[in-house]
Design a protein that fits this description.
With 355 residues, this protein is mainly beta. The chain is 6% helix and 54% strand. The protein has one domain: Porin (Beta Barrel). A hairpin with a 4-residue loop joins strand 7 and strand 8. It starts with a helix and ends with a strand.
């Protein structure tokens, strides 16, 4: 036990100090994992809610995510992950981060007992099928209970989010308390229904999420999978920006096969239609790749907000543990806001190395 705790502390100290030093850790109990991603992006998206002529999401980006899993005992383990990345933004806009920095995106203890799993620390949250419920730098706890076909997960914690609120002069960064509930029911082996709640406890204009979602996923044939999800955000901010009504969103995706990192030549493609009202996702809490906005976040999601159109994707394992992925989205805004151009189309090409 003493040896494993020492290994855990050593891993933490080395992991936070440098991206590559984690690879020097040895020992059968420690699992090192991660990805390195290089992206070229060409995007017509000029800002999210206000127009910024010099704000560009076009250019080359890179990011690295390095993690480790350390068993502490038979039913207890530690999972840690660090993140570093860069993106092209104007330094005087959008909190101005033309950065190449390291941050701690996950540091959690997991304990399992029977059908229950408990997580505490800095978590990477994931709810539903992708619409919402994923926020970076989430410090809190979750409990997952699995019984036969039903899996229920309850999550609560704090996170610092940035939300663009014109009435308050622009981007506002504040500490929010979130809680979420995720209920998944396996109808059959390849069919499931998922319902979620994702809500923050802030008041007035800061109340950005009060979101309910319901989704369905089914394997249509040997190599085909359909996924769809609908959500409604009834928070104060969403109603303010939609004439008193809640902000709605949905997506429907058909995917054929998929690239497997360890199988050179494997490939896949998908076609997705998405639509989201303004301020459905004001703090970038989705994990769907619907815009290039989320590159700088550990969750690597995007901004599922004031957006409608197709997202066409293709992926191919070009080398061992190296996947090329292409996304093209001929998309527009749902609603004109503050002089921002309607065009939100983009193209991205990612080369992702898994290790």
């Amino acid at each position: 036990m003493k040896k494993k705790v020492t290994a855990l502390l050593t891993a933490l100290m080395i992991g936070v100090s440098a991206n590559s030093a984690c690879l020097a850790i040895s020992g059968a109990d420690v699992v090192i994992t991660g990805t390195f991603n290089t992206r070229y992006s060409s995007a017509n998206d000029k800002g999210i809610y206000n127009f910024a002529d010099d704000y560009s999401k076009s250019g080359f980006y890179h990011r690295a995510d390095i993690g480790l899993i350390v068993p502490v005992s038979k039913n207890v383990s530690f999972t840690g992950m660090i993140f570093a990345g860069s993106h092209n933004t104007d330094e005087n806009y959008d909190l101005g981060r033309r950065f190449d920095e390291t941050s701690l995106e996950m540091a959690m203890i997991t304990a399992k007992k029977g059908n229950a799993e408990f997580n505490v620390g800095r978590l990477i949250t994931w709810q539903g099928l992708g619409l919402t419920g994923s926020s970076p730098y989430f410090d809190g706890a979750s409990v997952k209970l699995k019984n036969d076909k039903l899996t229920t997960t309850v999550t609560a914690g704090n996170v610092i989010n940035c939300t663009f609120i014109p009435e308050l002069g622009g981007p506002v960064s504040n500490n929010r308390t979130y809680y979420g509930v995720d209920v998944a029911y396996d109808v059959e082996k390849d069919k499931k229904i998922v319902a979620t709640l994702w809500q923050d406890t802030d008041k007035d204009l800061y109340n950005a999420y009060k979101t309910l979602t319901v989704g369905y996923q089914q394997k249509l044939a040997k190599d085909w999978v359909f996924t769809g999800e609908y959500g409604r955000n009834n928070a104060n901010l969403a109603k303010l920006k939609n004439d008193g009504s809640a902000a709605d969103a949905f997506f429907a995706r058909v995917k054929y096969r998929g690239a497997v990192p360890g199988q050179v030549g494997s490939n896949g493609a998908s076609l997705m239609y998405v639509k989201a009202d303004p301020y459905f996702d004001p703090s970038t809490n989705t994990v769907l790749e619907t815009t290039p906005n989320g590159w700088g976040y550990p969750t690597n999601g995007s901004n599922f907000d004031n957006f409608k159109g197709l997202v066409i994707s293709y992926e191919h394992t070009v080398f061992d543990n190296t996947v090329l992925k292409l996304n093209y989205a001929p998309a527009d805004r749902v609603k004109d806001m503050n002089g921002v151009p309607r065009d939100r189309s983009y193209f991205t090409a990612d080369l992702k190395l898994y290790f």
